[in-house]
Amino acid sequence: MHHFAYRNGRLHAEDVAIEEIAASVGTPFYCYASATLERHYRVFAEAFPRSRALIAYAVKANGNLAVLKTLADLGAGADVVSEGELRRALAVGIPGARIVFSGVGKTKPEMAAALAAGIHQFNVESAGELEALDAAAREMGVRAPIAFRVNPDVDAQTHAKISTGKAETKFGIAWTDAPALYERARALAGIEVVGVDVHIGSQITRLAPLREAFSKIVGLVKALRERGHAIARLDLGGGLGVPYMDGGEIPPLPSDYGAMVEEVTAGLGLELIFEPGRLIVGNAGILVAKVLYVKEATHPGARRFVVLDAGMNDLIRPALYDAFHALLPVREAPAGAPLAEADLVGPVCETGDRFAARRPLPPLAPGDLVAFLTAGAYGAAQASEYNTRPLVPEVLVKGARFALARARPTYDEILARDRLADWQ
């Protein structure tokens, strides 16, 4: 569900006309609906009424401070993968005790910053990281609470580039290495073993692989407890998908997911940790762009191109993952308007700068505004200034109000970040 709809033929975000925002901030821009953020967080949290659950929002999906503050005010924790994301979470008031630190490449300065913040737990992903974290904690005179991220070698049945639970991926410790590493961790003065972590991928649309992975991990928890490890927490990661297109595979409801988790973990008395990202913010955001040109040729088999002012640097998911994003004209097409196939492309100097190929579209002309749906996750978060194109503004809507949540930098600001060498 989202809060973007037509009113009198004009696309709105909640009670604000998209054209009004475009007139204020220019195009392209990202727009987020507070009502969708709030609803999706509550629906997910309410899926675990009987659990001691920490909902640690995955900051990597969308780290805008206004988005984070919206979720923090609802009680969300944070799942971070860098010191920068840790600082973002702390900046909006998420306490360290509600932050988990994931990722395969944590540095010692990042570990020290997280220890100083008193985070809830580190999800450790290698033996080398364990030793480095132990050293960092002992230098500070504290103990680092950890869960090993265990790779269950389960196929998430999702896109290969966002599947993380198979043995050949870089993520987590091997299933067969887990018992020995837990024994090693118990012997380290700077480490406090508190739990087990698993995360098998993103945009998962079936419960079966999640059930398989969670069942294996529950078996590991029981085995570790039998060896005397005080396993009190189970971090089940994120990954539950969102619908990107009509007619596509519909992901499970959070309530069905919650029921499965409650069944698999029943009787263990564990604190459960979840790291939803896309599920919370995906459908809460759109990318709005303007049509620059409609490019047509007359030779047989020629393609028709709708050239937008947004490019792959603004929304890279189609180029990176062949991802589908539904498109709506900001002014509603008349009933029965003819559809014609076109490639939706941007101005970036890459053939891969294409949002869609042969997409049936209503009539579009230069100056028309269009909106890519389900762009709230991994849209602005993965954007770049490739081709020296400024990062686009981000706007947060709440009811009849909107606010600029990130400004578009000027060219002078972009150039000022570079420095000439002292001999130039």
Q: How many beta-strand runs?
A: 21
Tally of contiguous helical segments: 12
CATH top level of the largest domain? Alpha Beta
| Inertia-based shape | globular
Query: How far apart, in Å, are the first and last alpha carbons?
Result: 55 Å
Oligomer: single chain
Largest sheet, described in full? Answer: 9 strands, mixed
Tell me the count of domains: 2
Structural class: alpha/beta
Low-confidence stretches: none
CATH topology name of the largest domain: TIM Barrel
What proportion of the residues form beta strands (DSSP E)? 15-25%
Helix content percent band:
25-40%
Mean pLDDT: 92
Can you identify the CATH superfamily of the largest domain? Answer: Alanine racemase
| CATH architectural label of the largest domain | Alpha-Beta Barrel
Question: Radius of gyration, Cα only, in angstroms?
Answer: 23 Å
Characterization of this structure:
- The protein is of the alpha/beta class and 424 residues long.
- The protein has 2 domains: 4-31 and 282-416, Lyase, Ornithine Decarboxylase, Chain A, domain 1 (Beta Barrel), CATH 2.40.37; 34-280, Alanine racemase (TIM Barrel, Alpha-Beta Barrel), CATH 3.20.20.10.
- Helices cover 27% and strands 25% of the residues.
- The strands form 3 sheets. Strands 4, 14, 15, 16, 17, 18, 19, 20 and 21 form a 9-stranded mixed beta sheet that branches. An 8-stranded parallel beta barrel has the order 5-6-7-8-9-11-12-13, surrounded by 4 helices.
- Strand 6, helix 4 and strand 7 (99-101) form a beta-alpha-beta unit.
